[in-house]
Write a structure and sequence with these properties.
The structure is a homohexamer of 288-residue chains. Chain A is of the alpha/beta class. Chain A has helices spanning 2-20, 32-35, 39-55, 67-76, 92-115, 153-160, 183-194, 224-232, 240-252, 268-274; strands spanning 24-29, 59-64, 83-84, 87-88, 121-125, 132-136, 145-150, 164-168, 170-172, 178-180, 198-203, 221-223, 257-262, 281-284. In chain A, strand 3 and strand 4 form a beta hairpin. Chains in contact: A-B, A-D, B-C, C-F, D-E, E-F.
Chain lengths: 288, 288, 288, 288, 288, 288
């Protein structure tokens, strides 16, 4: 009985393994996932999935932010934030903390977790090779930047050498000044610049819903135009908007599909990649 | 529940997929398997497994005989055999039938079955590029040959070009005369000459047993030296001897492992290759 | 005196040797040539020419049928043919015989003859890698097929690996069913698919004639449009039509020249390839 | 007059440029150099030299520590150090600060400075690809590690892709735990692992002296054995010992020469590399 | 003081070294330069510059004539010239002398001078591989030819193999007859055919002047259209016209810049190539 | 009848064509051959053979001297030679003539003759890339040199680029001074340095004889040790000694065979290379 199921899983999985071999898959891993008590196990499972993807020839790129960890460190240093137009202002002192925490705390933690399965992970920040080139959004917000251009050479070089890049989402402007940027947006832009096969957002929800109050209305597969309607009719709202916008942008920019998965499910990346059923919500262009 | 099992199968399988990518696996497929009524389904499942192996980068080589089909054709042509020392004599007329049936009937049937899944199979006989060079065993037996040398260039060239060679076990001597040879022995010799990772014999038994009358005594894993003891104590006997001898010879010649599997189990090749438990009996060298 | 002639032959031959190095030449070898008493010598001379062509870097491809041998085997098996619209019907039983004889008898005989001069020949049938993909001509004729598409990958791969492919003209449809096809037509289609330099038909006539009754009217060189006129005026008729049509089709499809040679002349292939005078009839496009 | 000098400089420099093209040069850049007021200019000049070296085909690798910056951050966070055997204990909290400051503050500052001249610098820490694998020195000192092994693959890959790696000297043990390590020692070990042509220490002294009190006794060129004598006789002592030991170790490990230069001299790297006179102190093996 | 100047020279030179690495630079070296007493030193300095250019990856091609040396040999052989339309007639006897002197005297002298710095120079004449294909200018002038076509294959092959070609400007027509040609024109045509970065004429003047009588009116940089005006207004005249015309032609044909330098200045090639100030007169297209 | 002979020539020649493809054959062409009245035809036939050899993939290298042409020019210039120990002294003036005639007259004549069949010939002298490095034999003889070392890089590079090098046998010492050398010896040394398949001397005799007075005693094939006996017994003497010594030296140095052919026979090179009978005298090592 179990042998039959095992054989079915394999028969289903092998063609996907071939299809995705050599393809780039960008995975956005949230800072939240690292912050809680039980998260170390979640990080370990995530790290194992990334290494298994790498094992069968997929080229994974991990992109991360680190909001909770930044807040902790600001608190420790007694730095209080001011706000402008409802958004937190990133002054020089805050920016230094953001950069230290993302590059010097969160990034090495993810890299080390992956490397316990085989020394393939390499941390990169948007400063390296000026990978994420930004301009300031507006003066009032301080060092908050919007991406002008992704230079994919460092990441591409690491992928070609067989490494798994782990990208800390710090931007840099033409003068070498560092900037705070939105990690979801950065992940989408990186996927587009790399010509990725997939961009996958690991979240703490099961996926998108057609009816926000009905768990049974999970959207398994949708298109860019349907998504835009869901936004305009208010079905999708709030914190999901930047993620969903990044999905739309990435798919329009040539990424084959975008995914919103529940990072709390063990091995959800493998389930999405290697089964017919997949996991969470898959977003493709209108024609495909 | 099912998702957990699926994830487990994948986590287990992916490292094997990596390990075997680019490796050559020789599969001996018996003429019996093609002869019965329900065999067309068995052939279809076998063909699917071969293509799936190929899909994930394994280099499969199929080797076949065709005893039952030869007997049928000899009967149709009213050719009766004589015997010498208890073995059937292969005279010129019989040899012509053997060659016609193996190269012109069994081989194309297997090739066509595989090609319904994607035109990768190419039939080869031992005559092509003098792949299987033989000498006559003795005059009394007529055109019965023993392999002197396997020239792997044709098979290797086809593998390098991405094809699945399907080898008909006809031998040829220095003068270009065709010979009848033992297919099990040929399969082992080919595996050795190719530096194969595995030689797999698909049979109609579950595997080798430690006690021939006790189904529960199936040997999952054994070594060359244990096998020799089982032969010397008579546990292994009769028709299994040539197969087991070929396994021993191949492993001694550098093939990493030899396998005796039950070809009646659906997708038994995938189960053997991609699960920790494997299937049937696995034979390795004494040290590993 | 002889030295002067030898030098002249060499001075004439060397530029042709250079011109044809690396070029593909398809040679249609008839089943008739194998059927007679003295043919073993003819086969040996033919095999020597093929190996000498290969020696100086030409890429020969041999294509064969086997009508007489098929008839012999049908007779032995007491299979009588029915006819439809004046053409022999190929039922399943007949088809099996056709395939057995071409793949299992004629093909290995040619391969072995070539390999006595150096193990370079490899038998291929239209089934391998679905090289010759066909559709049924019409229901009444049974398994008689017309070529839809030549997939040249197997033959090309063997050529690139330094082998001489010997093609048995069995076709296969999308479902893997084998079909009987015209060998002359197949040879032309293969030459076209390979982008061959030449297609050469070895026959038992000296070449085409302008006046069918006048041996002195041999056509040494002609063009596609002149040939069409000769057909429309009835000068060329009967059994020569399929061969000549295949020549026209191949030249139109990009083959530089088609040749009808007398296979009974010793080393006629070398004389055609490496002398200014050539041999038999040469057909080119209208402009060249 | 000036034209003559210019020509002399070029005639002298061009052969060095050829000799060092394609060679790896490791430059240890001290944290002190970044700490002072006027250092931004020093950093800018240093960054220009690194880019000019890169321009003519040298493969520079920058290695840095960051003692003063770590002390500042520990002070801001009110973390006080305990001591064991006269050495500062690195507890988990301290280690986190060390890592944040080196990876998240000092490293990006150097990377950004170089990138203002052309986006070639890429920050790497010893954690990435487990580049610097360490074991704890002893329990009492906490997370203070000694290098077991340098895995040069990440740095080598970046060099091969045309980037300038900037290495933050954090070590990591087999379990993924980060460690504090001596930056001078790390620089030497990296040079050895890369088979570097040169290891250059930028310091705030003019070079080594034969008589510590006599500025005119500057050693322009010395050997490993002479250096050992200078240590044993106490001429070299104190804070210079780890640097000098790293030089000796690197030269013994195959690095062609080690250099101690005065980082306060503008373009001292170019003067050392491309003039006959060189700069500071050069240390070679005894035979060369 | 000197260190500061040295550093300035290096900072200025390194980017040029990178820019010109791998680029072809054609240098026209005059026969006059070899004829005088003190010329051996000039030749030695010139040879050193060529080798230094080669050292840093530039691909220099030297083109030479040899008027004075030809006149000497004609005198020794008592051959007197006749004239037609004011130009010297090159009869068969004179042509033989021209060829002997250029290929057998001047060319080996330059090759040997370069090879004392490292065996990289290889003499080539326009006859080799029919590099300079010409047609006769008119019957009256005898063997005076104009270039129809430069076949760059021999020179390109030598450059690709790391050699420095030294081209003797003998032309050859379709029948293999040798011709006397203008060396300045040949140098320009070769630069154009090679897609050279620069064509440099070494002369015995400081450069072009805006006012022929005013040494201070040296033109450091000019364009093709300004030059044409200077010719049409008579500022440039006489013997400079062929050189200047060759410059114009070469720049129009794709050479980035043409230069007229004073070959009497030591290391003038290095000063031109590797300093911002350059030397002599530089001619570029109108847009750049 | 003629067709049969033609086929025989081809059957015999094709395996040689294959065997020699890609192999280097050095041909020593004498200055005498160019000096006489009817020589232009001889040169044309020789040039055709060289191009035909090149056509079928052989890599010919032509080596020449030019004694008669040098004597003519010395006479024209009224330069009389002095003698020391019975040998002509090469003073500076004579050396200049030798170099001018070989590089500037004989070499271009051969190059142009070959190039009328397809621009493949490139003249090279021993000065180029210091191909033939020599030292003076003794002071009394002036600029007469013996070869120390052949640097094959220029010739090898030209062969790899598909050219036919034509080598003028001028030597050069470490200081760049040109020297007169024996052309037969130079040809043998070049063959050895190139690892040539054959060294062929074109002479005006039919080959070596066992009895100098008996034309029927021509030696078709001999070995190094037999040759040494023939020299020691005085059968071979006089002007043939340097040629025969060069043959012995070359064969000992790894050249497969040396040949002494009668250059007056039309296409003698083709007869030697591509027939079983060969031409002239063939010298091999003792074992082969």
């Amino acid at each position: 009985m179990s042998e039959v199921h095992t054989a079915q899983v394999l028969v289903e999985a092998l063609p996907y393994i071939r299809r995705f071999a050599g393809r780039t898959v960008v995975v956005k891993y949230g800072g939240n996932a690292l912050a809680g008590t039980s998260d170390h196990d979640a990080l370990a499972l995530f790290a194992e999935d990334i290494v298994l993807m790498h094992t069968v020839g997929i080229r994974p790129v991990v992109v991360h932010g680190g909001g909770p960890q930044i807040n902790d460190m600001l608190a420790k240093l007694n730095i209080t934030s001011t706000f402008s137009q409802g958004l937190r202002v990133t002054d020089a002192e805050t920016m230094q903390v953001v950069q230290m925490v993302l590059n010097g705390q969160v990034n090495p933690q993810i890299v080390s977790a992956i490397n316990t399965h085989g020394n393939v992970a390499v941390g990169v920040s948007g400063i390296d090779g000026r990978t994420l080139q930004v301009t300031a959004r507006n003066k009032a917000l301080g060092f908050v930047g919007d991406i002008d251009k992704v230079r994919p050479h460092v990441i591409q070089g690491l992928l070609d050498d067989g490494f798994v890049p782990v990208l800390s989402t710090i931007g840099v402007d033409k003068d070498g000044q560092s900037f705070n940027i939105n990690a979801d947006t950065a992940a989408g832009a990186v996927a587009e610049a790399l010509g990725a096969e997939k961009i996958i957002y690991l979240t703490d929800i099961a996926g998108l819903r057609r009816d926000i109050d009905d768990a049974s209305s999970l959207i398994q597969r949708t298109t860019v135009s349907e998504l835009q309607e869901l936004i305009s009719t208010g079905v999708i709202s709030g914190g999901m908007i930047p993620k969903v916008d990044s999905c739309i942008q990435a798919v329009r920019g040539g990424v084959k599909s975008a995914h919103i998965l529940d990072g709390r499910i063990a091995h959800v990346l493998l389930l999405e990649l290697f089964t017919d059923h997949g996991a969470g919500t898959m977003i493709t262009g209108d024609v495909s």
